Amino acid sequence: MANSRFEYVKLFERENPLLPDTYIVLRVDGKGFHKFSAHYGFEKPNDAKALDVMNQAALSVMTKYPDVSMAYGDSDEYSFLLRKSCDLYERREMKLITTFASAFTTEYYYWWTQLFPEKPLDHERLPQFDCRAVVYPNFQVVKDYFSWRQADCHINNLYNTTFWTLVQKGNLTPQQAEQRLSGTLAADKNEILFSEFGINYNNEPEMYKKGTVLVREITEPEKQEQLSDRQKQREQKKRRKAEIKTLHCDIIKDDFWQQRPYLE
Amino acid sequence: MANSRFEYVKLFERENPLLPDTYIVLRVDGKGFHKFSAHYGFEKPNDAKALDVMNQAALSVMTKYPDVSMAYGDSDEYSFLLRKSCDLYERREMKLITTFASAFTTEYYYWWTQLFPEKPLDHERLPQFDCRAVVYPNFQVVKDYFSWRQADCHINNLYNTTFWTLVQKGNLTPQQAEQRLSGTLAADKNEILFSEFGINYNNEPEMYKKGTVLVREITEPEKQEQLSDRQKQREQKKRRKAEIKTLHCDIIKDDFWQQRPYLE
Amino acid sequence: MANSRFEYVKLFERENPLLPDTYIVLRVDGKGFHKFSAHYGFEKPNDAKALDVMNQAALSVMTKYPDVSMAYGDSDEYSFLLRKSCDLYERREMKLITTFASAFTTEYYYWWTQLFPEKPLDHERLPQFDCRAVVYPNFQVVKDYFSWRQADCHINNLYNTTFWTLVQKGNLTPQQAEQRLSGTLAADKNEILFSEFGINYNNEPEMYKKGTVLVREITEPEKQEQLSDRQKQREQKKRRKAEIKTLHCDIIKDDFWQQRPYLE
Amino acid sequence: MANSRFEYVKLFERENPLLPDTYIVLRVDGKGFHKFSAHYGFEKPNDAKALDVMNQAALSVMTKYPDVSMAYGDSDEYSFLLRKSCDLYERREMKLITTFASAFTTEYYYWWTQLFPEKPLDHERLPQFDCRAVVYPNFQVVKDYFSWRQADCHINNLYNTTFWTLVQKGNLTPQQAEQRLSGTLAADKNEILFSEFGINYNNEPEMYKKGTVLVREITEPEKQEQLSDRQKQREQKKRRKAEIKTLHCDIIKDDFWQQRPYLE
């Protein structure tokens, strides 16, 4: 075949199969979403409908890939947890991260057209996401990973809420608001909101303060370590059928995890 | 900061910077396009408008990333060549492949809405692409890589053209057509087309036989090896402004490459 | 400096830091030890003094690197277990494996000169070892790894013992012995040894049947997860001073591991 | 077989095959040679016999592995160049670097016993080397790599020569000598040597100033790109028989390379 003398070029391809028996986190992250949100006039500090596009996209991705146990997202990012025994694409890193980057992008696009029919996406500002994989060898680090993202959400949201209150209700320019907040601690920001604007941060919507947790509720997971092929298929089917709950709860404290031992 | 005790989880992240001074090929590949093309009723063996969506998406990606020197695509795949000195995302593999997978996906979606306004994309069958990076140390292998893809395009297109002619004009069932072609050589297929259906394969459209080549026409590239930062910026600007030509020509023979020394 | 214009070549260097919080096994393996043992006239099936060179070399390596928790060796190979929190050479794979390959080689050479003063090493047949690193995410796999090596030791030793008994006492040629053993099970080999030569395999020396286990006996390990720098130094000192025991015991059953929780 | 239930642990092993059609440099580097040279009383600034041990070890390694085209060493390090088409150990990085680390170590030990029979190696101070692989995609970078090492040799040797002259002939303490040289340029050091001690640095031995180059002199290399298996064997035999020359010449200028096109 004429083709065969060129096929040696395949020898330059490389794969990176991720370590077996470890948790994989795939995190997708919006590209240039600062400009994206400005371009489409997102409400500040949070645009409920735009967040809904993110959440619907993540839910669709999680529905499509039953190996995803849970997901957590806020702002323009989402983290997907693949269970320890996951063998999707033989755990090949390149395949996993590009598949999730593409799946999230296409779902975001789709849900945008559904939720913002009045705002068609412009060619010069299309939604785009990168993705990375991180491998975690035990469940404690996995919990700490999600705690890290939720703590980050809290820090950002408190800042943004105070910043935009100063701008929108306090009539400060963005520069003045930034200067005002420079060097302040969480308590200071809470105090500004409360004493100057009568806003109790604790009463802000949970989705903004805590982000969004998607969790596949497996009521009766298989208990054995080693499953036969037939058992694996049954397990996979069970995962496909399991309900995916959407929550805006605390995942830093132990409660969330203790109630869901099947995530481990 | 409350966040800091969790930040150690970042230590588990890994990067793979691709070898400097080598050519990078990024190849995006459609996921499940057999079913995708059936779902949306693509014309067989080739759907000119669907190929146009691919080509427009590739052209948009290439316009956005001036480090892409050329691209080649056919069917549901596209290969992008990054020039040897490219330092996009510090050549981090994960970032490059997920960015291109996402960029291609979002552009494909966009161009689909433009070219197929009568066929909105259905949620159960959205376009999706994976991507891989391959590193090539010298230009001979790069040429052989693109020759490999074009030879592959030719083999597939000759097969598909004959197959669908047997089905559409010869009234064979797909199974019968497959059986008929089993074990045939290129000459046999040409003969079937010509003697049974009066079709001269050579007269088929060039885009179907040769695929599509996008090439950035740099008329006056910088000649020095080592460029200053200002020279690099000027070079980058020149690349941005350079015209991208769309061709359906032979890239296996030397002519194409000899006429474009700036690709090397 | 004249040197600086060449220093860019360092940009092509790559590192692979092994995943944190995982067990690392470094396995050194003799190169061409079949010919090596023939050249120096090793006793068959086992040469006690040659095994002693291996064991002394491993003990010296383990003494030099306190991060090694235990080691297991038989024939011409040795596996070293680095504890989960080990940060030796920042866990850089290349540095770890080449350091252990070289350390084992130089120690083997040294102990050979001590134990075989009458057989100086010949230039055409010097001892050489390669080394690989394997990362294990949990302790169950670590135990299974060492079980794998010990099971392998048993299988080889039973074969070799029977083979050489057939040759040395049964006057078979090596070819005849090989043929005789082809397709036999463990029970068959035990039976040959016992009924034909009056040898009870169970009475063979433990070192030959079980291989050699080196274990660092930490009587009071630090219990906390997170140690201060001072605590880490104290821990390291404790590890340096801890006795390294040499055993020839079963490590497939749970007893060995249950008695040494500090290995985990 | 009892062993089989443990064999899954092999799934955790990883390989890194180095990119085909690129030059591989393997650099071995002494571990703690500052203390090593003090322990065994090396002459300062250069110990001719100790350098001879390095050179003999490198020559032996190069003789054993015909894929090594050339080597360059000074002080306690040696760099080996593997030719572009080298397929030794299928280019597996771990295997290559641990094999060379071990081979160099065992040869160093051997040649030490030959050249320093009066100084047997002490257990507390055995020679040890690490090794790294660097992949270079074209010959210009390879030349720059070796230029980098030779420039480094020159800088170090000029410093050391001046430093030890100040100590040995100028009766300065090491601290005073270090202070005296702090901030000096090459010209300053040449001047100190000449005006204060009558030493013309240019007349110092070439081996000290230039390091040592080992080069496999292939008088009639195969010219074709693609060799049959039989041609490969003939080529390999030719490489084995080719003379290895030991030089102390300049490899920064082009002459050395132009005279040896077969290195490329």
Features:
homotetramer, 264 residues, Alpha-Beta Plaits, six-stranded antiparallel sheet, 15% strand, tRNA(His) guanylyltransferase (chains A, B, C, D)
Sum up the overall morphology of chain A in one term. globular
CATH superfamily of chain A: tRNA(His) guanylyltransferase (Thg1)
The helix-and-strand class of chain A reads alpha+beta
- CATH architecture label name of chain A: 2-Layer Sandwich
CATH class of chain A: Alpha Beta
> Which spans of chain A have pLDDT < 50 for at least 5 consecutive residues?
none
Percent of sequence in beta strands of chain A: 15-25%
On the 0-100 scale, what is the average pLDDT of chain A? 95
Largest sheet of chain A: 6 strands, antiparallel
Number of strands of chain A: 6
Tally of separate domains of chain A: 1
Query: How do the helices and strands follow one another from N- to C-terminus of chain A?
Result: EHHEEHEHHHHEHEH
**Which value, in Å, is the CA radius of gyration of chain A?**
21 Å
In order across it, which strands form the biggest sheet of chain A?
Answer: 4-1-3-2-5-6
Under CATH, the topology of chain A can be stated as Alpha-Beta Plaits
What oligomeric state best describes the polypeptide chains here?
A: homotetramer
